Structures
1.
Amino acid sequence: MTAVCPTPHHEDDVVLLGHGAGGRLTAELLESLVLPALDGQGGPLEDAALLPGHPDLVVSTDSFVVSPLFFPGGDIGSLAVHGTVNDVAMRGARPVALSVALIVEEGLPLPELRRVVRSLGAAARAAGVPVVTGDTKVVGRGAVDRVFVNTTGVGQRHPGLRPSAALARPGDAVLLSGPVGLHGTTVLSTREGLGFESDIASDSRPLHRLVAALAPFGERVHTLRDPTRGGLAAALNEIARDSGVAVEVDEDAVPVPDAVRSACDLLGLDPLVVANEGCMVAFVAPSAADSALAALRRLPEGAEAVRIGEVASGGPEGRVTLRTLVGARRVVDMPLGELLPRIC
């Protein structure tokens, strides 16, 4: 008798955790169910959208369900601010206002809620982006897990800066503003008591000042993306797909902290698919690459910025390839589903 590996069971009629992971299952859910119901237009799904009739204004909304609520380097309050500020910034915009909605579980201790809200307010003030409106709802025990936060951001685009996931071009330099994997491994380690959080902290922080530093390069900045859910692998695959280009990255150029690498080795994870909340990828025309990298490095949040690869002149459209440490090449696929649930 020949052993046959069973085909993974796919449940067509229920929502899976993987549908919210930012990978292929998320794309399937959006394309087959959500966008058709909302008369969604074709084209790339950006981190923030242009307001109809107001091409210099962008808007983005996000919900945060991270577990645990508090972790080294941040908490659900500051994460909610940073995540939405960054999504607005990735369209080349300066964030100007936020809304905040809280969904709170009955029984949540008020000191915990106070800590979340104070952290949220402090993060907004530090970013220079006021919270101008909001809402609070309380639901029964078990209807949510302690507290969920939704934030919406509005921003105004920097003159001449028009990045899009569909604008990467052959020859572009691929810049990364800092190390990868810190947020996802910190949250997972704190949640599961793995002990790595004593050596690392989430990279959660606002990135809009880095985008402002790139504004003088104008249209030579083709694409910006913060690699959150699905990590660097998902972000690069989305850009390669939406721009119809092949992206090549050097493994030894991608900064992975030792503690992140150790955690990933223990858990069987690829650091490229682990979520980040404080770094961004920039695809920049070759003529601006060195100057743009220098501009990023002049800011504290970009001090560790590096060039990690380029857009290949040839190669299969939509493919991301990693040049490994031993000189081989491997394809970096879009993550399928949920590797690290409740990470943001």
2.
Amino acid sequence: MLVYNFLRYLLYIAIFFVSFFYKRLSRFIKKRLFQNIENKNFSSRDVILAHMSSVGEFNLSKELIEELLRKGERVLISVMTDTGYNAVKKAYDSNENVEIIYFPLDDLFSIKRIFEKFNIKKVIIIETEIWPNLYYFAQKKSQLYIVNGRLTEKKMKSYLKMKFLVKKVLNSAKRIMVQSKEDKGRYLRLGIDENKIKVYKNLKYSIKYEKISDEKKEKYYRNCVNRDKKIIVCGSTRPGEEKIWLEAFSAINKNDEYQLVIVPRHLERVQEIEGEIKRLFSENDYELFSQIQNFELEGNIDSRDKNEKKIFEKKKIVLVDKMGVLRDFYQLADYVFVGGTLVNIGGHSILEPLYYNKVPIIGKYYQNIEEIVNEAQKMNYVKIVENEDDIIESIKSEEILDTSKFFAKNNELEKIVEELYCD
């Protein structure tokens, strides 16, 4: 620890020098090392410190935090990034049982000050971040838990180069709850006490996604989505996937039974996708979402809207050129394709469509989401396609499944919370 902190302070000299010339870096350092924690409102009460890196880890752990709050706990949330801080603030700014701080970059004196200010009885690290000073004080003054721990082969190889330090730091945890048997094996190779390691399924299975209101659905139906047709939504599509789906849609939609909604992963590709659409369809067959969306998705339908039976002619194809509406369209869909899988990207999350009771269609390239796909396959809750014929077959099959069972089976949040209170 002495060597670690000595090297840190040598690094500080370089960072502070550079920060004189880069205001952004200066603001980053100031927010984290010189933040005011004196005005936090439950310093005299027992607190659980939950540390997470960014907004992704916060989304993962939100239901865990909610469970702790339901148990009457007070939670101090530490985040590294501005996006994470803002997400936590938006969710809990008015909750008197939650306080938010920036993680002070594992600075020895800042970490010590936090443990002196707050009566921290448990420290929960979301996923695996190794911060020796935080771990040291957590072990000394409270109980340390790692939740949703994961360790990739690549990261483990770098950890093996400093195995002595990593082994000592991680063994300071009372319990390490990892996502898979493979993760457990990697921790064991680092020399972690096997009795400390438990395998629980990914916290992703506990996430509760927002559902749109009936009124908002009605606005989509009135202005954009054709309620009389079967809606195919292709979400997070990548180059090459739109072409395959447009050709399949052209073949299957001879009787005009379907409507296709394309939501690309990157909006800068909209013009490119328009070119693909025009290759098979006329300009009157599609419309950009921004061009048909001159209605407010939020708020009440006014009396004028109620008297209008039709605002826009619904097109065969809707190309979405707006961020933040993919989950809305998933809820309106009859069929969902999740992109990055027909081309060798590795796949994007299939949890959202599963949560909204849709059986996702994906391609064969799903290495980034393999664990979740494998679980979904066990329950026949995913369709894997390789070409246009497979796509057409998957659309023609009318099997309806209740995917809520998928989350009931895989959500182990209750077991994780029990582990936190197991002496």
